[in-house]
C-alpha cells in the first residue's frame, strides 16, 4: 500500500530545519519500506507572518506492507518529538499520514495553502473529509503544511540538493570555498542557478542562520545539481546530503487577479495603471497601481537594490503587469513586488531651453529671461516641451537573486516569463 507522510513547522529562527528532519526520516524509513521517488520540499504561502523561516514542508511516499504501518508512524512521530525546536513560540509542528491515491480535494487544499491564508480548523476539516490522520504538537499549525505537502500536485518542479553540517558546527560560520562555488557556477549555469551574485561577488548557496544546512544547490537538471555539489570545496565536514524535488522557482504561487480581489497574504499577478508618481521612505520605493476594481500600494523594498531603479522610471499613466505578495506595511495593504512588465508606457516630456534663434548657441537662464552664452542675444524665458526616450524596455524586470522568494521563477529558466505573459494575455 502507498503511505504518504507530511511534516512541517519543526524549525525556528534559532535552529533546526524541517528538511534536515525529513532527510533523516527518509534515510531511516527507506530501510523499512520502498520509497516512491525522492522526498518533496514544498514551499507554501511566503506571505504568512507566523512562518518559521522559509515556510517549507516536507513530504515523502513509500510502498509499505500493511503490518509495519504502525511502526513507520511511530518512528516519524518519535523523530519529530525528539528533533523539533519546541522552545520557540512560532514552532508548532504537525504531522500528517494518508494511505492510498491522493484525492482531488486534498490537491485543491494544497494549492490554496500555497496562494492564500489557511486556518488550522480548515486543515482539520479537510483531513476528516479525505480520511487523513494528523498529529499536532503545541498549537499544531504545522498540520496545514503537512497536509498540503502530501497533496501538492508537483507538475512543475525543480531540484534542490541540501548538504548538512555536523551538529558540533551548528551556529558557527560556514566554511565553503567561495572560488570553487564561482567555478562550479560558471560550469553549470543556468542548469543550476542562484549559486552566486555575480555583481556583488557573493556566495548564495550557504545560508547564514543557526540551522543544520551547510549549502543548498538548486537546478532544473538532476545530474548537474549533483555534479555542481561535487565541484564545491568545503573546509568543514559534510555530515550527509539529500536531493529533494521541489516547487521552488516555479511561480506556482502567482494567480492572476483584479486589484479589487486582492486579500492580505495573497500571491498574485495584476494588471493596472500607475496612478501617482513614486515616493520613497527609508530606502523603500512605493507607487500606486489601479484598475477598474480598485487601487493598491506597490513596494520595491530596500533589499531589492538596483531593481528599485527600474521602479523609479515608472510614470503616472504607465500600464504594467505586477507580480508579488500582499502584505500589510504601515497599516496599508501593499503588493511586495517580485517582478513587473511594462505593457504600455506614456510619453515622457521634458521642458528645455530653446537654442539661440540668432546663432544657434546655448541659452542660459537669467531670472525671467534667457541669454545666449555665445552672442549675448536676450529673449523672454520660455521652455519648450521635448519628448525624450523612456528608459524602460518592454521586458520583464525581476528582483536580484539574493532578494528572490523561494517560489519565484528566475527569468533565465524556461517558463520564467510564463505567469506574467499569461496574465497579459488574459487581461486583453
From TrEMBL:
Residue intervals of the TiaS-like TCKD domain: 5-137
Domain TiaS FLD residue range list: 140-253
InterPro entries xrefs: NA-bd_OB_tRNA (IPR004365), TiaS (IPR053434), TiaS-like_TCKD (IPR053870), TiaS_FLD (IPR013696), tRNA_Ile2__agm2C_synt (IPR024913), Zn_ribbon_TiaS (IPR055394)
Main location: cytoplasm
One GO cellular component term noted in the UniProt record for this chain: cytoplasm
Pfam families linked: TiaS_FLD (PF08489), TiaS_TCKD (PF22641), tRNA_anti-codon (PF01336), Zn_ribbon_TiaS (PF23783)
Residue stretches making up the TiaS C-terminal zinc ribbon domain: 354-392
Highest taxon above the source species: Archaea
GO terms of molecular function: ATP binding; DNA binding; ligase activity, forming carbon-nitrogen bonds
Enzyme nomenclature, EC number: 6.3.4.22
Cellular compartment(s): Cytoplasm
Record keyword Mitochondrion present: no
An annotated GO BP: tRNA wobble cytosine modification
Reaction catalyzed: cytidine(34) in tRNA(Ile2) + agmatine + ATP + H2O = 2-agmatinylcytidine(34) in tRNA(Ile2) + AMP + 2 phosphate + 2 H(+)
The entry's keywords: ATP-binding, Cytoplasm, DNA-binding, Ligase, Nucleotide-binding, tRNA processing
Domain OB: 269-342
PANTHER family per UniProt: TRNA(ILE2) 2-AGMATINYLCYTIDINE SYNTHETASE TIAS
Family assignment from sequence similarity: Belongs to the TiaS family.
Function: ATP-dependent agmatine transferase that catalyzes the formation of 2-agmatinylcytidine (agm2C) at the wobble position (C34) of tRNA(Ile2), converting the codon specificity from AUG to AUA.
Designated name of the protein: tRNA(Ile2) 2-agmatinylcytidine synthetase TiaS
Organism, scientific name: Thermococcus nautili
Record gene name: tiaS
